Hints:
This protein is mainly beta. Helix content is 10%, strand content 47%. The chain has 2 domains: 4-113, Elongation Factor Tu (Ef-tu), domain 3 (Beta Barrel), CATH 2.40.30; 118-253, Jelly Rolls, CATH 2.60.120.860. The chain has 2 helices and 18 strands. Strands 1, 2, 3, 4, 5, 6, 7, 8, 11, 14, 15, 16 and 18 form a 13-stranded antiparallel sheet that branches. Strands 9-10-17-12-13 form a 5-stranded antiparallel sheet, with no helix packed on it. Strand 6 and strand 7 (102-110) form a beta hairpin. The chain is elongated and about 65 Å long.
Amino acid sequence: MDKVKYVNHFGETLDLRGTEIYSSYEALKSFVMSMSNNRLTSEGKTTALPVVCLSIDAANKLINALEKDSVNNIYGKLYINDWYIRVIYQGMTPILRTSDKVKLELSFYAEDTIFTKETSYQLSSANQINVKGFNFPFNFPLNFGADPIASSSITNNELLDADFVLKIDKPASDINISIDANSYIVDATINEGETFVLDTAEKEVYKLTLFGKTSLLGAADDTSYIFNPISNGQHKVAWSGDFSLFLTLLEHRRTPIWI
C-alpha cells in the first residue's frame, strides 16, 4: 500500500490515505501521470487530485493546512512513499457531500514536475582519524599536518547527480569541507544559536540568525564551485572535526517508485 501525505511549510502532516482522508490508487496514478506528462514544457502545471474526507471536520482540517501554504505563496510537499513533488494548493471543487463524507477535487500547481527523495546523514565530529604523515586519497585543499580531521561517507543510489543541503548548527569558522575532489569552502564564522546552510539546489549559501537569513555567497571561495552536486556512488566526506555536519541528499526522478 502506497503511503501518501501532504506536508505544509509549518511541518503539519496530512495522511491522504488514512482513516479520515483518502485518495484512491487510480486517482493517485492519474495525478502522477498528468504531472509527469508535463515534463517537456517550460511552464508549470495545475492538476486535480480527488480525495474523500469522512467527516466535515476532516475536510476543514485538510483545507486549513493547505491554505497555510497557499496564502503565503510557499510550496508544500506532496509525498508518495519516500518521494515528494513540490506543489502549491490552488483551490478545491466539491464533488459530493453526504451526511458522513465529502468528496473534493484539490487543485495543485507544480512549477517543476520532478519527484525528490531526501536521504539524511548526521556526520559526527566524534568520528575522527589522525592524519599524521597520511596522504589523502582525495584532493583535500588544506595541509592539516598532525591535526585530527573527521571523515565519513555518503551514498547517492540514483543514476542522476544529487543536489544536497548541508547544515552546521554549532559554532564554526573557516568552513572547509571536502566531498571526494570537490571542495566547499566558506570564510565565515557561525556563532552560538546560528545555523550555516549550503543548498546546491537553490544555489544558496547563508546563515540563519535571530534576525533572519544572511547570505554568505560573497564569502565562498572562488577557486572551486560551491554548488557542485554529488554524483552516483559512494563518496568520502572530510572536514576539520570541530563540528558535526547534517547533510541531506536530494535524489530526483520524473516519476516516483511505485510499490
